[in-house]
Amino acid sequence: MEERRRHPRHQPNYDITGKVKSTMDFRVVDISEGGVQVETRLGLPPATLCELRVSSFGSDFVLKAEVRRCRAQLTKTDTGCKVAYRSGLEFVDLDQDRMTTLRQLICNCCANDQVQEGPVAVTQGAVISGSLYTV
C-alpha cells in the first residue's frame, strides 16, 4: 500500500500529556507536523474543533485541531482490561511560532521515525453519536 501521509509520524520516547477541551486528560500516542493521535478516557466526536494544551519540558502550549476519527479500543493491562479512545486529530491554524514549537517538541521527544505497536487490542469499535459499536 502506498504511503499517503504528508508528514511522518513519530512515537514519543516518554509520555507527552495535556488537556483537550480544557478538562479531559490525554496522552500522545504518535505525533507529526500535520496532526496527533491521542488516547483519552472518553471519545471525541469527529469533525469537531478543539484546543490541545500540551505539557512538555515544564511548559505548556496550545494547538488547535480538528477531530478526524475516534475509535474505542479494549486493551489488556497488568491489572485487567480497560477501554481507551484513540482519536486522530489534524492541526489547524498553525502559525510559524506554533509550528516551530511543534517541530522542537517532535525533535526533543522522538528519537526514531517508526511508530511502534501500542497495547494489544482485544476488540475495536467506533463511537457514533456517543455509543460504542464494536467490530
Provide structural commentary.
With 135 residues, this protein is mainly beta. It has one domain (17-134): Thrombin, subunit H (Beta Barrel). It contains 1 helix and 8 strands. It has one helix at residues 96-109, and strands at 17-20, 24-31, 35-40, 49-56, 59-77, 80-92, 121-128, 131-134. Strands 1-2-3-6-5-4 form a 6-stranded antiparallel β-barrel. The longest helix is centred in the C-terminal third of the chain and has 14 residues, at 96-109. The radius of gyration is 15 Å and the shape is globular. 21% of the residues are buried.
What's the arrangement of secondary structure elements?
Blueprint: E1 17-20, E2 24-31, E3 35-40, E4 49-56, E5 59-77, E6 80-92, H1 96-109, E7 121-128, E8 131-134
Antiparallel strand pairs: 1-2, 1-4, 2-3, 3-6, 4-5, 5-6, 5-7, 7-8
Summarize this structure as a short list of keywords or feature phrases.
Thrombin, subunit H, 1 helix, globular, 6-stranded antiparallel beta barrel, mainly beta, 135 residues
Terminal Cα separation, in Å? 23 Å
Shape: globular
- Give the mean pLDDT: 80
- The third-level CATH topology is Thrombin, subunit H
Q: Architecture in CATH?
A: Beta Barrel
Number of strands: 8
Q: What profile does the largest beta sheet have?
A: 6 strands, antiparallel, barrel
How are strands sequenced across the largest beta sheet? 1-2-3-6-5-4
The total of helices stands at 1
Unreliable spans are 113-125, 127-135
Report the structural category: mainly beta
SS strand fraction: over 45%
The ordered H/E elements are EEEEEEHEE
Proportion of residues in helical segments: 10-25%
